[in-house]
Design goal:
The protein is an all-alpha fold. The chain is elongated.
Length: 248
Amino acid sequence: MACRPCPFLLMDQHTPQPERARGLQMARSMCWHCQSEVTGEYFCDRCVKVQPVSKETDYFTCFGVPRRLLLDPQKLEAKFYELSRTFHPDFYQTKSADEQTISLSNAAVLNTAYRTLRNPIQRAEYLLALETGSVKDIRTSPPADLFEEILELQDTLEEYRASDRDSDQGHRLRATLQTEQEALERRKHEMEAQLQQLFADWDQLQDAGEATSLARVERDRILKQMRDLLSHRTYVNNIVTDLAATIA
């Protein structure tokens, strides 16, 4: 999905004041301005000041959706535009410096959350980090059954880079690399199909809401398989990208 322009650049100076956003969560239970209790809206009920998003608030909560992996992209986009209007700089030009800073910070969080959730792979990686408590990137590793093939492919790549690409040898090596690229792309698509099934399994498990030992075992199985597949897919995708750039 192509990147859409930031809605801040799309709105004109006469956009009407938006309603208070209810999808995002507050950074604290007390208003930063009047110290009143903030009870569910993104603005203080008493002084009507915008409240900062909590650093502990996850991206799913930002958009008011459960931790699911098969999200409706159109609904997600609609929610993004609805919430982003709330923090448009035009609405804070006459506000205090604190309110302007908070609105810009909230907008940045919202943009990052949307970029993450709209991409199925990034969404899955983010959910894994939430569920496993790991903030590190998933380390890439080759699928075990492709290890030897990938080593040979790397040798072929180096040979092609060192060859005269207009020679018979160069043409032969390029044809070999194209064949390998197509095979790896098919493998990547297979892994993505497997991930889609795991996404569905995860959502079904969460919808069931069971807290049994069997449910915990199933949860751990899904997360482990998802992590392994994401690792392998990223590794293969990096090789495909390298191949495409080399033989272009």
